[in-house]
Amino acid sequence: MPPHRHVPFAAALAALVLLSVPTAARAQSTPLPSILVELLTHDIVLQPNLANPALSHEAHFIPGVDTKEAPYLFNQSLVSQISTFPLGASTGGFSYRFDSETGAPVRVSDSFGPAFAERARTLGRRQWELGFNYQRVSYNRFEGTDLESGDLTFYIRHENAEPGQVPSVFFEGDVVRADLSLKVRTDTFAFFGNVGVTDRLDIGVAVPLVRVEMNANLHASILRFSTSPNFTQIHRFSDGSSERTLSRGGSATGIGDVLVRAKFRVLDAPGGGLAAGLDIRLPTGDEENLLGTGATQVKIAAIGSVSAGRLSPHMNIGYTFSNGGNTWMNMTDEFNYAAGIDVPVHPKVTVAADLFGRTLRDFGRLRLVDDRFLYQVATPVPGGSPSLGPVQEFVAPQFQAQAGNLNLAYVALGGKVNPWGNLLLSAHVLIPVSNSGLRARPIPVIGMDVAF
Questions:
Q1: Which of 77, 104, 281, 338 lies in disulfide reach of 117, CB 3.0 to 4.6 Å?
Q2: What's the whole-model pTM score?
């Protein structure tokens, strides 16, 4: 084997060492999916009344149903993208046809093809491909709201306070505002191998190694609608103040959900023709740390590609069946699509542009809906009960869970270069074009593969 063919193996081995060995050193007591749950539902605790424990209010601010559900839906959105993010096309850039007369493979394509969509071409009988790609994803928005600026805001009612109703006891009109800022980043190194069983059938496997980092800050402040300025001692944090910042974070590293796939070319045409694809994603990742879904997913797809001069358009349509999940989420079925074009601008250079996306059926969404908080300002009365002012109203947008599909779409732009032999280097950028769910900044992806 020529020396350059050892490159993917050496890189894969290095990635295994770098990503797998430090896992134990980064172990943590709080699993990643629990970080937001703990911050929003358990960490906001007020100072107890030591002089009169019966009047303590340290645990009297209880998140509502929607606030409690918010971190679970966020985790669901996060894991659905981390664990099922596209790992690249199932067939590499070189495509051959086995010549029965000479007993040798003959290359049949001038284009190296797209990176994240599929074309109907196959590797060719007895052809192998090994390679890897690396992508770094930094998430910066959730349902259109900036993640890192503290604009993810939740309002937590006092215990017994009901939406749209005047509290039965005046101090229950106070509200805790929780401003969440969040940094989430993933690094994924995917090692893949494909083999041409026949000229029409390819099978392959992709093994992702994933590192997830999450750091959250929650700035909690007491909105003293009813207790200010005369009853501020009722609701306080442990340091006696009305504001407090809480933090949690962690990371996890390990193997994600392994992908086994196959492609069979049904009809021949210049540029490929029509093929059927099958992907099986196995629940091998640790779902308790956002490294896997805990579900088995099976995708079937129709793949079409043609040649029109130097242009090679392609289109994919598929459906993913999901079964299972974990203790806090179930994966839903998906509709998948991709379309694009690749162009060999030089015998050793191909550029490509693709639009690909997913529609997660009945996934559930969080949307901002105006919420009403009623309260009365209390004034002390010597020897009697406090005097209450008129009922007032505070209206603020709250995240509320709603049923519905989640649509995710990306544009992939980039190219592949063949520096020598059957070695390919690739570089692409994925640009999110949808604003729903969890949205990332532009995603750089680099890769390398070799055919033999």
A1: 338
A2: 0.82
